[in-house]
Amino acid sequence: MTVQTSQISTAFIWRRVHSLMGFWLVLYLIVHLVTNSQASLWIGDDGSGFVRLVNSLETLPYLQVVETFLIGIPLAIHGIWGIKRALSARLNASKSDGSKPAMGYSRNKAFTWQRASSWILLFGIIGHVAQMRYIDAPKKATSSQGDQYFVKLNFDEGLYTLAARLHVSLFNSKDLEAITKQVRSLGIVRLEKKSLSQAIRSVPYNPDEEGARDMFQKAIQEKQWMEAIASYKLNETQVVAAAPSPGVAMLLMVRDTFKSPTMAILYTIFVLAAAFHAFNGFWTFLIAWGMILSYRSQRAMLPVSAVGMLILTFLGLAAIWGSYLINLRY
Question: Which pTM was predicted?
Fold first, then answer.
């Protein structure tokens, strides 16, 4: 007598992986929005909570590796499989002419909204990463006074007092022209380079050479600092802010982004789609992994998912509409 063993299909495995990656991304989204909300929730603290959290994250060792494996890869897996499912989905929540089923039940509508929100998130995430991590991301340079982080801003009168409180220096287009001229006229005499074998062998200590090398290193750093700030192209209404930490630079970048009504509206749509997609997906994750199989338990988890959506929406909208309009306007 032979016993046949059933094989688990590849599609089944990928659905489970897709679901698991989605759950992990929900956890990350919560952390991300809690961090961003610190720019506005505590009125009068100038976003100190946001600055502290960002600075802590930026000091993590191998940060880019961590981001790639804990965020990038799960996002790619969930996104690629999600696109495949969205393209093959058969939506039936809307009215029909009779040629196909039309079932306007709440779960059918949720299925439709889940697919619609996935497309919003696809383009929203691409735009968000491109803007915050590349286009508007702060530039780092080292001077004799330590590390500084530069970010280009559209100037408004609130920056006069805010920059002073955050210990930020502002440079306009005329300042950059003067710095550019100084960089071009700056001549640095390079010290003699030695081979590796010469560098590691024991030699007598020379205080004069130590002083010369120290001065040379500082001159190189000052030139790199000036080149970094001079790389920006400004119009008359823009400035470059030199911040003492990455958290302060990113706080100013977030504030500058949400000064624009267009960006605020686009990010509001992005947050609403993310909040719904995350916790509707969390509800289906619990079913897929056998945690809520009965009708009663599934019904009981719907309010929990709704509360999760509301909390994420509140945190996201607080960062969007509160960072500039309330907490960091002046």
Answer: 0.86
How far, in Å, CA of 285 to CA of 15, rounded?
10
The distance of Cα 277 from the centroid of its chain, to the nearest Å, equals 18
Residue 290 is given by DSSP the state: T
Q: How far is C-alpha 108 from the chain's CA centre?
A: 32
Do the beta carbons of residue 19 and residue 289 sit within 8 Å? Answer: yes
How far is the C-alpha of 51 from the C-alpha of 35, rounded, in Å? 9
| Confidence label for 6 from pLDDT (cuts 50, 70 and 90) | low
HSE (side-chain half, CA atoms, 13 Å) at 28: 16
| Residue 61 Cα distances to 25, 66, 73, 134, 150, angstroms | 21, 8, 19, 20, 22
pLDDT tens string 75-85: 999 999 988 88
Q: Which domains does the chain show, CATH number per domain?
A: 10-91+108-137+256-327 (1.20.1300.10), 139-191+207-254 (no CATH)
